[in-house]
Design goal:
This protein has seven helices and no strands. By secondary structure, the chain is mostly helical. It has one domain. Helix 6 packs antiparallel against helix 7. It is globular. It starts with a helix and ends with a helix.
Length: about 120
């Protein structure tokens, strides 16, 4: 069950969390991954976001609760977005994961979780 914090997230914040978590999963954030996240912020949504605060939260999020936060955030994004917006975020998610030209097993778990949360196959 999502926390009040997650239930108040707008689409930009939720999308940012999803993409940043995907970039953190393999243990280090590549500049190519950061570029994709910035592209998402520039192109996708114009809702306000405090990037420094959100980055600090995500970097401080313990690895053992990261998947749970990812799942709850994906569920929130699903609730507040259209199918087109979800498809657009999914394309960005795949770009983040493949930014280093390989999908690590942990990244695959997160992508599969996103598919499951959104009822995709």
């Amino acid at each position: 069950m999502p926390t009040q914090f997650i239930q108040k997230m707008n689409k930009t914040e939720a999308g940012f969390h999803i993409l940043m978590i995907l970039s953190l999963v393999d243990g280090n954030i590549q500049s190519s991954e950061s570029s994709v996240v910035l592209e998402f912020l520039e192109e996708s949504f114009q809702q306000p976001i405090e990037i420094i605060k959100e980055q600090a939260f995500l970097r401080a999020c313990p690895a053992d609760v990261r998947l749970n936060h990812f799942t709850e955030t994906a569920q929130q994004f699903f609730k507040i977005s259209s199918i087109g917006e979800r498809n657009k975020l999914l394309a960005f998610a795949m770009k983040v994961v493949m930014a280093d030209e390989k999908m690590e097993s942990e990244e695959n778990v997160y992508i599969n979780t996103l598919y499951d949360c959104w009822g995709l196959e």
